[in-house]
Amino acid sequence: MPAPRPLDDVACRTSFARFRVASIVEGIALLVLVGIMTMRYLVFGGDAWFTSTSHFWEQVSSVWSPIHGLIYMVYVVLGFDLWMKMRWGLPRMLLLMFFGVVPVLSFFGERWTHQKVESDLALRPTLEDEARGA
Questions:
Q1: Which residue in 2, 31, 99, 121 has the fewest CB atoms around it within 10 Å?
Q2: What is the pLDDT of residue 47?
Q3: How many angstroms separate the CA atoms of 92 and 100, rounded?
């Protein structure tokens, strides 16, 4: 059985750095969206007294929701890029996407992914190992 192709250490770390930023931005954007939706539906949504305030939160929601959607799509693309460079299995890609769906989970998922990247780069052959002749 042939040896697995070595990972490109620099490309993997660069891809993870981009994913790390996207995880933090996605986590913040999702928390903002949850706050907006809470204000819109739970705090001001059902009371006729606050119709102007409720209208304000509808406006904010209609602006922020597509922005958050775009941020999530960038997060998924950068997660896919990391997944490809690390040559992980499909369940790990699905897990990376899931981290961006649950509020606050992207922060924990980023830490977990960082540990997985570091351990995989330490255990699996890399181009740097090949260049050093190890």
A1: 2
A2: 57
A3: 13
End-to-end CA distance of the chain: 20
For residues 49, 52, 58, 63, the Cα torsion angle rounded to the nearest 10 degrees is -160
Average pLDDT value for residue range 74-91: 96
Model pTM?
0.86
DSSP secondary structure string for all residues of the chain: -PPPPPB-HHHHHHHHHHHHHHHHHHHHHHHHHHHHHIIIIIISSS-GGGHHHHHHHHHHHHHHHHHHHHHHHHHHHHHHHHHHHHT--HHHHHHHHHHTTSTTHHHHHHHHHHHHHHHHHHHS-BHHHHHHT-
Kindly state the tokens that stand for 105.
């989970």
Are 55 and 91 in contact by the 8 Å Cβ rule? The answer is no
R_g of the chain, CA atoms, integer Å: 20
Task: Report the distance separating Cα 79 and Cα 76, nearest Å.
Answer: 5
95: its two tokens: 């897990």
